[in-house]
Task: structure prediction
Amino acid sequence: MDPTAGEEGRGAAEPLLSRRSLILGSVAAGAIVVGSASSARAFTYQLRSQAEHDALPITWGYPFDSPADRRLGVDGYPGPTYSGHIGVDFFTVPRVGTRVLAVANGTVSQIGDDGEVGRGVFVVVQHAAGVRSEYLHLERGSIAVRVGQPISRWTPLGRTGWTGDVRPKEPLSGHLHLAIFSGPHRTGVVWNPVWLVADAPTPGGTIPEPTPTNYEDDMAYPFRVDNKHLFLVSPGFIKHFSDSGPADLTRNIVASNDEWISLGSADFLKQLDSFGVPRNMVDLTVGRVFDVSAGQMVVGGMWSWAREAQQNTRAILAALNNRP
Result:
């Protein structure tokens, strides 16, 4: 999203509902509008052709270690957008805490924090040919560079977050807004990051494959916390395993790979935020999850918003049936 324009959410259609929104009982993050590249619209900024993009003397890289879901793009170029949006929104899994990488060689020209308005925590990198890239909504405290620092392609800049004008204001809305400019912010050239970095290689040398919207809803992620507790997490869902055998079997069936993601307690709690799982549903001292059916923390327990909603519905119906 482009909060620097003061138009965040304006002109957007109703948000799309995804499986996550059904689990959480809320609107899915990221309104998507089918944009128009109509020449009749009067832009305050300048656009460039695909050939001019290809002619830039810059070697580009992908902004993450692995593919991300790409949503709203630049108004005026092909793809989903809304009026005045001048960057591309990338949604990662997990939403919050994913490493953000510089898309090309350059020098860090600006670092800032607009608070909970505008860009939030951001980094600006100056590249060759007067081109600069801007990385918005980063996680507070995650900035890994300093102003004036020369950097290379794929240098870690910070981590994805939900600072600034992000709507709805919740971790599930966390994303990277990547904008690429030449000249003045609103009257210069706005380049299309999709044409520049979407097919650029990752640090591992692979070309990201296109990913369907909300692809992460179909996956669960296995976490090993403090090298002893095993959890399976997906949006609005968490399961604790007390035995590694069933844990490994389940991981191999539902996870995208056969490796556990090893994290410390603090980092794992941040990941719970990005998945929409309340922190108080987990006890990391002994390894337990609040089990809705049992009504207490349980070793091997499982919690989800869906189960919570079902339990609440049963309680309401029982209360109604017991009315005098």
Q: What stands out?
A: Residues 223 and 261 are 5 Å apart (CA to CA). DSSP finds six helices and 18 strands in the chain. The radius of gyration is 21 Å.
